[in-house]
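PROTEIN–LIGAND DATA SHEET

This sheet pairs a single protein chain with one bound small molecule, zinc ion, given as SMILES. Inputs appear in the order they were entered. The predicted three-dimensional arrangement of chain and ligand is reported afterwards as a token string under its own label.
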Amino acid sequence: MPELPELEIAALQLRAFCEGDVVTKASVLRDRSARAQGVKIFEENMRGRTLESVRRHGKNLFVDLSPVKNVEGLLWIHFGMSGKFAFADKPKAEPSKSTRVVFDLKSERRVFFEDARLFGGVAAGDKEEVEKLAKVAALGPDALDLRGGKAWKRALTSKKGDPEIKVALMDQARVAGLGNIQAAEALYFAERSPEARLSSLTDEDYKRLAKGVRETIKRTLDATIPKEGEQVAYTSDGAHVENPFRVYGREGETCGRRKCSGTITRYVQAQRATFYCPECQS
Ligand SMILES: [Zn+2]
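PREDICTION REPORTED AS:
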């Protein structure tokens, strides 16, 4: 499932391929992908718009669109469980089986939004309206915008309740961008158990967590940024990449931390597989 690093890569690719280009036509191939506003409205709202700048917030991509009648425009793309882009240099390039939206560009090239499992989607139009559809106001700060233990503490404790720390890390209303893998990895770095309650975290823990998140995201980006001409390989698909993680997918292996002889353990927490070392994460 795409998390912050995959979205960061998608944003880089989209920016490089078509920032400044004009969408002559957008075609939705599956109604479900435009369910936030309907196929017709989406297609109409995209026609003739310039893709001005690509931004990422958490697991959402936003593209500022040229204004219509002085109203700023916005395109929202969310990746759900399986979203990704494919890019084609030819105007007649064929979509794949999992292509859901085709963007025809003035430069006679195409961008395909692919989403095999159909949990993702798109919306476009007036900026304010699209931000409402994307529930931007309910999103916490982006994980890469948070620096230092204090900022992490503020974000994670911004909502009521005392959830388990891994659940809190994945709550997009507290911090946007982390998913199952990055949360598990950051907790390994911070040497805290995924099950520890938020209220048990010390200032030192928050500091380590802040560092841990940056470290794990950087490691994932280094391992997965595609070389020219390559498609994005999601680390969770295991495709083309050696497992770059310390705990994720390493059940039964010996903990890689110096002086720790623990065994990486897998269990299910809030319906998601969680990996951790019971020896050094408490
Ligand atoms: Zn360990």
